[in-house]
Write a structure and sequence with these properties.
It holds the Pfam family Cupin_2. The chain is 0% helix and 54% strand.
Length: 97
């Protein structure tokens, strides 16, 4: 059976799991200036797609600027800390290695 989610209907809290099971798929909404504290997702590959806004993504010692339409793939073994430069929504897919 297929599952379909309409992202605009998922407004509300900043983080919400879209589908149960693997890969974990999360909608992340941040207000301008909000930052998620550094954290890790060991043994995981992550794809982040910015749906709306601009996000400054700190990945270990590197910082990547992402705007609406940009996608980034990175390892969850490092410290990860996204910060919204403006009100932003991103879709993250976390897949175990």
């Amino acid at each position: 059976m297929s599952e379909v989610v309409h992202l605009p209907d998922r407004e509300g809290d900043g983080r919400g799991v879209l589908f149960e099971g693997a890969p974990k798929t999360v909608r992340l909404a941040l207000d301008a200036g909000d930052r998620v504290p550094p954290h890790r997702h060991p043994d995981t590959e992550i794809v982040c797609y910015v749906v709306d806004g601009e996000v400054e993504m700190t990945l270990g010692d590197e910082t990547v600027d992402l705007a609406a339409g940009d996608a980034a793939r990175f390892s969850g073994d490092q410290d990860i800390s996204p910060k919204a430069r403006e009100d932003s929504v991103a879709l993250l897919v976390l897949a175990e290695r």
